[in-house]
Design goal:
Length: 138
């Protein structure tokens, strides 16, 4: 809204849950972090810096590149401290629970077809999938 400060806007964001989970990039690797689901976005932030910055930099764009792209269809970025995945709920077209062996996963598909896989180990992803489904547009 016009005249609304970012602090006022943030206070209206509804958080639906937070999970400590693994993000599995399609390029390989595993990043443990916190996935927060709000009514506006899914935000994954790694809990610790990877020991191999080369891999992190290859998979995650740096913040400057993200800004230069205008934020369009660029969902992953990093700085020297953390890697982040930021998925606007308006761009999510599908979320589904999947299993690979005993491991349970939530697979989020964006408008551009890109998929993001979050692995919850042997724990159920039903609540996570339900939270994401409740904030999807359409």
């Amino acid at each position: 809204m016009v005249g609304e400060s970012s602090a006022e806007r943030q206070s209206k964001v509804q958080e639906l849950g937070e999970w400590t989970i693994n993000y599995l990039p399609t390029e390989g690797g595993r990043y443990t972090g916190k996935l927060t689901v709000t009514d506006e976005k899914l935000l994954f932030v790694s809990l610790y810096e990877s020991s191999n910055k080369t891999i992190v930099k290859a998979i995650f764009l740096d913040v400057g590149t993200f800004a230069a792209a205008g934020g369009h269809s660029v969902y992953r970025y990093s700085n020297d401290d953390e890697a982040t995945v930021d998925l606007p709920t308006a761009e999510i077209v599908r979320v589904e629970a999947a299993k690979k062996g005993m491991m349970k996963r939530a697979v989020v598909t964006m408008k551009d077809g890109e998929q993001f896989v979050f692995d919850y180990g042997m724990l159920s992803v039903k609540k996570l999938v339900a939270a994401i489904e409740s904030v999807m547009s359409g």
